[in-house]
């Protein structure tokens, strides 16, 4: 990992301001920011891993857990929020047994929130592996996930 | 710089902040994120002021003064603004007690409610009456919080020594900055918005992200978010007794917080402390402290009165004289105690008193940092943490260390020899300086490195940590001479310097040999636990005809004694240690000696008097010190004639070099630190540090059981992946039972997974 980070750093103008580009680089190759990566970035840039983690968690762009086989994204944009997006999220979070931002221990599902999926007319919406489902009730959302799990 | 603050003329040097300038002229500006010694942050927005010619309300803690500035700190607009800001802050912090109309007049009977699991108000908070929010509410004059309360019920994070309650955190960032200031960077702001908090990478335990538990974060926390568990519910202290830390030779000053005749906790007195000084002195409150003298009857140690114990000891020791007797002590004891044991040994027993603290030539920390060039051998972050921290700011720092120690990471040049070859590197440097050919075979350091660094070292101060062997000390002393520089050998203990000045280290090795050979028949051991430090001494010590031990615990050595005297703790006596520059450092009595225990010097004097000796009638420790200072100086140990040993070549049949190094969390033989539960927790496994690459090829990860096997034997250990060790090297905490696999500090081992 450390070697990969050093290679990524080579392409940047220097260590100054390199933290975010390095995080982006890791995310685009791995799909997420792993614990190893956080440690290695800290080592390479000479800052502590907690500081790296602090920056990574500040930006919603960065994902800190390995994405699951199926990626569930629940919209919490204004429209979805008002039409029950939070209830969708709570129901899914409970049935998958993970808080948003995590992946189930078996690696099957990861649950995330997004700010808008661009189809507010169908609120509340969620996207599973890129497919958008609209006008959902919490029970329908749960059923869609249950179907995938079979 | 001249400025006007609230119509008061103020003169301060450039670079001062407006807030500091106001404070200096007695004008109080509230503030929660600002803290003396930390980088200004400007996060809490409570110190806002008005400055003529500057738009808006700048924060005074980040605003440097300018010539002719006109500052106002208390306009109605500012007072209003501060109230609303504080109100917003309190809408996320339990505030019932802060703005309660009966605040300060609350019924005493409510105190037991502190046992509720969640802190709801000040009466339930561990920092009650030690909290900056309480002061600030008063200063700002906030009487009511009208905003709806945003209650949070985040999980309290328990760590060794202290807890973090995120529900009481105001995100001032003082702890994050204090941690950066100590170069640990263990904690950081994490997440954002309502989720924002202070934490570690992936919520890992503090000990896994570089925390050294110095407690600086707890010291600066303005609220109950960070609170030490020791003395958690005891409230504020009635007074703070300034004394000297009883552990390493950095001799930090510590504040003992006392109330009602009891020690509550240790406070920093504005200086840096390490985990031992801040959280490790609770051993004096351990329930296993000796309370009464013990006398061996029918093979068993039983409690006795002082008269009886002194009489038995006096009678027993009177049968021996000269070389049949020895007194063993250590640099843990005060000058007064050391001097009287020495006097007892020579005047009453016609023998000598020895201590393992052979050479200690200290230097005041400020002289150390101002030195142009400093060469360091030894891992000061483990042995003398505060000295190590100070040395990070040395101008030209050269470190000789096989491990990437804290100082090696901060150095301008790091020479990384194979473990055990440190002395040879110093010899090579010495040869390079005198233009000889440095012989670098098998050292792990190349000639170019040596040749590059040698010219930088002219006049350098050579600092040798207490973890270095005699060979390193000798090589360093010769190198320092060649460099026309200064040699600093840091002592092991708080008063190694005192023991060394009294010349007690000279005959230590010989005395231990004499015990092994059975030449010694009787001994008086004070403040030293050789049976724990060297388990192989248990047998010869139990073979002694008469043994008197004086300690605060029934130590491994005390268990072998004929008579045991209970000594008073470091917080229960007045006395002195000799500081790094030879100056006297006070040890001040904060509480009365526990039960029937007595100060060391007094017990020795009483024993001498019981044996009919004259010249032991002292009024107090001050008169002992006066007499000690009137004595002629003693000869120091001789380094000139010492012949350096040739280090063994690493053999080929083993893959790894194992190096045993002292640990921050276990001091000396561990007699005292092992009594602190959280220090025990941090040393609960026999951690063996493995380089990440080696771990990969061995197929082990952190926490795996491993077996280390040398020519001498094998032990079980637990692996810990660490970038501190280079490939091919393993680091293990120095423990007395390592003699199962090694004789010195370095040996060759094979590693395999424990299955």
Question: How would you describe this protein?
Answer:
The complex is a heterodimer of chains A (150) and B (755). Chain A is of the alpha+beta class. Chain A has helices at residues 2-10, 19-30, 35-45, 49-58, 78-82, 85-96, 138-148; strands at 70-75, 109-114, 126-128, 131-133. Chain A has a four-stranded mixed β-sheet, with helices on one face. Chain B is an alpha/beta fold. Chain B has a seven-stranded mixed β-sheet. Chain B has a six-stranded mixed barrel with strand order 27-31-28-30-29-32. In chain B, helix 8 (335-348) links the parallel strand 15 and strand 16. At the A-B interface, helix 3 and helix 4 of A face strand 7 of B.
Q: Could you tell me the strand content of chain B as a percent range? A: 15-25%
The tally of strands of chain A reads 4
Oligomer type: heterodimer
Reported by name, the CATH topology of the largest domain in chain A is Glutaredoxin
Spatial strand arrangement across the major sheet of chain B: 14-13-24-23-22-15-16
Short précis:
The complex is a heterodimer of chains A (150) and B (755). With 150 residues, chain A is of the alpha+beta class.
What are the key terms here?
heterodimer, A: 150 residues, alpha+beta, Arc Repressor Mutant, subunit A, Glutaredoxin, 2 domains, four-stranded mixed beta sheet, 7 helices, 47% helix, elongated, B: 755 residues, alpha/beta, Ubiquitin-like (UB roll), Alpha-Beta Plaits, Rossmann fold, 5 domains, six-stranded mixed β-barrel, globular
What is the strand and helix layout of this fold?
The complex is a heterodimer of chains A (150) and B (755).
Chain A: H1 2-10, H2 19-30, H3 35-45, H4 49-58, E1 70-75, H5 78-82, H6 85-96, E2 109-114, E3 126-128, E4 131-133, H7 138-148
Helix pairs in contact in A: 2-3, 3-4, 6-7
Chain B: E1 2-5, E2 8-11, H1 18-24, E3 50-51, E4 70-72, H2 76-90, H3 132-140, E5 157-158, E6 162-164, H4 174-181, E7 188-190, E8 197-199, H5 216-220, E9 226-228, E10 239-244, E11 253-259, E12 262-268, H6 275-279, E13 294-297, E14 300-303, H7 306-318, E15 325-328, H8 335-348, E16 353-354, H9 365-370, E17 373-377, H10 380-383, H11 385-391, E18 396-400, H12 406-410, E19 413-415, H13 422-433, H14 447-453, E20 461-464, H15 470-482, E21 486-489, H16 496-501, H17 508-516, E22 522-526, H18 530-533, H19 538-542, E23 546-551, E24 563-566, E25 575-578, E26 584-587, H20 600-610, H21 621-629, E27 656-661, H22 677-682, E28 687-690, H23 692-698, E29 705-709, E30 714-721, E31 729-733, E32 746-753
Helix pairs in contact in B: 7-20, 8-20, 8-21, 13-15
């Amino acid at each position: 990992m450390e070697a990969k980070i050093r290679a990524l750093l080579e392409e940047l103008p220097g260590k100054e301001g390199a933290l975010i580009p390095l995080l982006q680089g890791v995310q685009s190759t791995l799909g997420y920011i792993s614990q190893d990566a956080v440690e290695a970035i800290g080592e390479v840039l000479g800052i502590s891993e907690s500081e790296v983690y602090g920056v990574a968690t500040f930006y919603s762009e960065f994902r800190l857990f390995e994405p699951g086989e199926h990626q569930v994204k629940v919209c919490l944009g204004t429209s979805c929020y008002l039409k029950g997006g939070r209830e969708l999220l709570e129901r899914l979070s409970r049935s998958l047994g993970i808080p948003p931002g995590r992946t189930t221990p078996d690696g099957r599902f990861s649950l995330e929130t997004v700010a808008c999926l661009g189809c507010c007319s169908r609120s509340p919406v969620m996207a599973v592996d890129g497919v958008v489902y609209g006008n959902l009730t919490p029970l329908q959302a749960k059923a869609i996930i249950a179907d995938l799990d079979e | 710089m001249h400025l006007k603050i609230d119509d008061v003329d103020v003169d301060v040097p450039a670079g001062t902040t407006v807030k500091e300038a106001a404070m200096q002229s007695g004008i109080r500006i509230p503030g929660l994120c600002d803290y003396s010694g930390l980088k200004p942050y400007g996060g809490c927005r409570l110190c806002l002021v008005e400055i003529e010619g500057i738009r808006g309300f700048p924060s005074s803690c980040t605003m440097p003064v300018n010539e002719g500035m006109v500052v106002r700190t208390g306009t109605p607009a500012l007072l209003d603004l501060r109230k609303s800001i504080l109100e917003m802050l309190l809408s996320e912090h339990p505030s019932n007690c802060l703005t309660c109309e009966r605040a300060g007049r609350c019924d005493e009977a409510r105190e037991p409610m502190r046992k509720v699991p969640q802190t709801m108000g000040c009466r339930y908070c561990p920092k009650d009456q030690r909290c900056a929010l309480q002061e600030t509410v008063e200063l700002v004059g906030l009487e009511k919080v009208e905003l709806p309360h945003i209650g949070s019920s985040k999980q309290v994070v328990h760590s060794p020594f202290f807890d973090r309650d995120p529900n009481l955190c105001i995100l001032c960032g003082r702890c994050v900055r204090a941690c950066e200031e100590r170069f640990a960077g263990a904690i950081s702001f994490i997440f954002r918005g309502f989720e924002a908090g202070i934490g570690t990478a992936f919520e890992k335990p503090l000990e896994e992200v570089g925390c050294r538990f110095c407690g600086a974060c707890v010291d600066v926390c303005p609220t109950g978010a960070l609170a030490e568990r020791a003395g958690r519910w005891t409230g504020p202290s009635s007074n703070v007794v300034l004394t000297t830390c009883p552990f390493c030779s950095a001799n930090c000053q510590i504040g003992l917080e006392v109330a009602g005749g009891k020690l509550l906790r240790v406070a920093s007195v504005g200086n840096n402390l390490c985990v031992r000084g801040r959280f490790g002195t609770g051993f004096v409150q351990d329930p296993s402290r000796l309370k009464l003298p013990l006398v061996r009857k029918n093979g068993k140690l039983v409690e006795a009165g002082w008269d009886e114990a002194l009489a038995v000891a006096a009678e027993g020791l009177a049968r021996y004289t000269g070389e049949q007797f020895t007194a063993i002590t250590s640099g843990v004891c005060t000058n007064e105690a050391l001097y009287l044991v020495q006097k007892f040994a020579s005047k009453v027993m016609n023998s000598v008193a020895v201590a393992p603290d052979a050479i200690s030539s200290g230097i005041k920390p400020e002289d150390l940092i101002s030195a142009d060039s400093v060469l360091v051998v030894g891992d000061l972050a483990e042995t003398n943490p505060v000295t190590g921290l100070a040395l990070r700011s040395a101008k030209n720092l050269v470190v000789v260390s096989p491990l990437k120690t804290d100082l090696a990471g901060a150095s301008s040049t790091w020479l990384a020899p194979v473990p055990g070859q440190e002395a040879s590197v110093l010899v090579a440097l010495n040869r390079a300086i005198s233009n000889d050919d440095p012989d670098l075979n098998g050292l792990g350091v190349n000639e170019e490195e040596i040749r590059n660094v040698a010219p930088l070292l002219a006049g350098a101060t050579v600092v040798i940590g207490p973890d270095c062997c005699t060979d390193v000390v000798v090589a360093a002393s010769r190198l320092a001479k060649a460099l026309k520089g200064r040699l600093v050998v840091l002592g092991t203990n708080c008063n190694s310097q005192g023991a060394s000045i009294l010349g007690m280290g000279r005959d230590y090795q010989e005395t231990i040999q004499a015990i092994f050979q059975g030449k010694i028949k009787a001994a008086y051991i004070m403040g030293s636990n050789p049976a724990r430090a060297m388990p192989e001494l248990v047998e010869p010590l139990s073979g002694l005809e008469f043994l008197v031990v004086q300690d605060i615990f029934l130590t491994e050595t005390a268990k072998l004694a004929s008579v045991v005297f209970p000594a008073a703790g470091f917080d229960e006596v007045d006395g002195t240690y000799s500081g790094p520059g030879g100056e006297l450092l006070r040890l001040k009595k904060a509480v009365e000696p526990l039960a029937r225990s007595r100060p060391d010097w007094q017990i020795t004097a009483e024993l001498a008097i019981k044996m009919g000796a004259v010249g032991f009638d002292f009024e107090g420790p001050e008169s002992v010190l006066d007499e000690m200072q009137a004595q002629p100086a003693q000869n120091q140990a001789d380094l000139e004639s010492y012949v350096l040993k040739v280090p063994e070549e690493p053999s080929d049949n083993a893959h790894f070099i194992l190096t045993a190094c002292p640990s921050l969390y276990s001091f000396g033989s561990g007699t005292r630190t092992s009594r602190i539960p959280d220090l025990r927790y941090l040393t609960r496994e026999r951690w063996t540090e493995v380089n990440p690459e080696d771990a990969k090829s061995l197929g082990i990860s952190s926490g795996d059981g491993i077996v280390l096997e040398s020519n001498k034997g094998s032990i079980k250990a637990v692996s810990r992946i660490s970038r501190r060790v280079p490939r091919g090297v393993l680091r293990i905490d120095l423990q007395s039972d390592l003699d199962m696999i090694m004789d010195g500090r370095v040996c060759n081992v094979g590693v395999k997974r424990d299955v």
